[in-house]
TrEMBL record:
Active site: C308 (nucleophile)
Designated name of the protein: UDP-glucose 6-dehydrogenase
Catalysed reactions, semicolon-separated: UDP-alpha-D-glucose + 2 NAD(+) + H2O = UDP-alpha-D-glucuronate + 2 NADH + 3 H(+)
One Gene Ontology MF term: UDP-glucose 6-dehydrogenase activity
GO CC, alphabetical: nucleus
GO biological process: glycosaminoglycan biosynthetic process; UDP-glucuronate biosynthetic process
Residues holding NAD(+): 36-41, 61, 66, 121-125, 162-163, 197, 308-311, 378
Source organism per UniProt: Decorospora gaudefroyi
Amino acid sequence: MSTSLRQDAGPMPVTPLRASNDTKPPKRITKVCCVGAGYVGGPTSAVMAIKNPQIQVTVVDYDAKRIAAWQSDNLPIFEPGLLGVVKPARDGIPNNRAPNLFFSTDVDRCIAEAELILLSVNTPTKMLGQGAGHASELCYLESAVRKIGEVAESSKIIVEKSTVPCRAAETLRDVLRATGKPGVDFEILSNPEFLAEGTAIQNLLEPDRVLIGSLNTPQGLEAARALAAIYTSWVDAERIITINLYSSELAKLAANALLAQRISSINALSAMCEAVGADIDEVSFAVGLDKRIGSRMLKASVGFGGSCFRKDILSLAYIAESLHLFEVAEYWRSVININEYQKDRFTRRIVRCLFNSLSNKSLAILGFAYKKNTGDTRETAAITVINNLLAEGANVRVYDPQVKESQIRRDLEGSSASPHLVRDKLTVWSSTYEACAGADAVVILTEWDEFSNKSAAAAAAGDHVQDARNGARTEEEAANGPMSWKRVSQIMRKPMYVFDGRNVVDPAPLEALGFRVESVGKSRSGS
Ligand SMILES: NC(=O)C1=CN([C@@H]2O[C@H](COP(=O)(O)OP(=O)(O)OC[C@H]3O[C@@H](n4cnc5c(N)ncnc54)[C@H](O)[C@@H]3O)[C@@H](O)[C@H]2O)C=CC1
Ligand SMILES: O=C(O)[C@H]1O[C@H](OP(=O)(O)OP(=O)(O)OC[C@H]2O[C@@H](n3ccc(=O)[nH]c3=O)[C@H](O)[C@@H]2O)[C@H](O)[C@@H](O)[C@@H]1O
């Protein structure tokens, strides 16, 4: 087998690209194929294409429905600004698809034609066999790489964009060694993605950094330079960091673990605040002024969700355990334990306030997505909280501006110990007012702007409350509301409660309307 894959992953200095000694120009890539048309593959490829008109970027996926949606005006994911990069207005013709961006189900052909392949397939937590519930499932990645080995007739740079366990590149290299054709070389790079949903386009256009990990060999470094050259079309060279392949893989897991750890830390403190009469927003503000701590990702909540924090921490802990670093594994798992505790604590507070019984009570749930400005519900705290409330006998009335009823039912029925409760006691509504009609309590689970009674500036002061538009409302939002809490107060059963799992409402004006407001990390008596 002449497939040449180099293994020198020795220490490499961390260098911004500019410091490279290589003076010859990097290889110019003209065809990129992105495997996986999901939350990462779609937006990343669209931004890459719009910033590199000379490069043909094709996103491939076996999911024909998803590809068809990318080709339509009805994109498969909701993300502010996404349509603008997929279908930029050009030459006075608005809404024309970027001429160098393609979506296709012809995986073999697109892989064969590409010089550089981005792997953006899902890497969920393994559900079966060894490591089930902990390790990352790499079967999608493996199958994509097998396909590359089978169909590639020319050498390729293969880029791990998916989040992977450290040393996953070695596995990919093994697969390629076994499946690749003689004379075809593969160079594997790690280029993890750091975008957050809801702000993906902004994050892609102005990344804090672009991380490129490669082997410390001439071929590895050359491949890294070729990938970096694509990014330099819109990212300052100082922000493009080239490091060792395995450091890059681990840095992605570490970044997510550290971000989630901050949220669990502040949520753990929120429990103390409720007990001692302190205010978590004030504590968070006070500690965040210390430059060494910083203010971001310190917003107390009902608990973090999303497809990645939990799975990436589980993966990190599993790796630590495999290395017999049991205390390290336990440390990271505690971040998840606090998150589960926070969701349960929030439900228990609701039950306690509503006189220890939810039987014959109706609760309006505002928000189902795991954060605002996305329709994504993966690992959303709403799933746990709503299932808990249903188990307590409550009637649950849900409204989310972006999540479809079918998705809500699928998520809840698929995770509930008693799916019949979801069928019998859950209703989904298309407006706040319909959801709140006759309800005993409003439970805010997602920080959508329309639920807030704060000014845009006050809302923007919080980190994850700040949106891509810096708190400005679109014309549509301005026309439709923010919601009128006064109107809500007129249609609810008394006494009326608001349980604010996101601290997006200012309690005082609501209390003036007769609501009893319970916010995360604040006690009513302490306010
Ligand atoms: N969702 C997010 O905000 C972020 C996700 N990531 C990471 O990026 C990776 C992808 O995440 P998402 O885009 O959210 O996943 P996703 O589930 O939205 O998309 C993955 C896509 O890959 C396709 N796919 C799987 N195997 C394939 C194959 N062999 N050939 C062709 N297509 C295949 C699936 O059909 C699916 O459409 C994961 O590793 C994730 O941890 C990283 C940063 C942010
Ligand atoms: O690997 C990934 O998938 C991505 O995971 C997160 O992005 P994302 O999950 O989309 O969104 P975040 O803004 O990080 O929020 C995650 C969860 O934490 C919650 N959160 C966030 C911030 C905060 O201060 N408090 C808080 O409860 C959010 O509401 C949400 O439920 C990271 O922020 C991204 O850098 C990373 O690329």
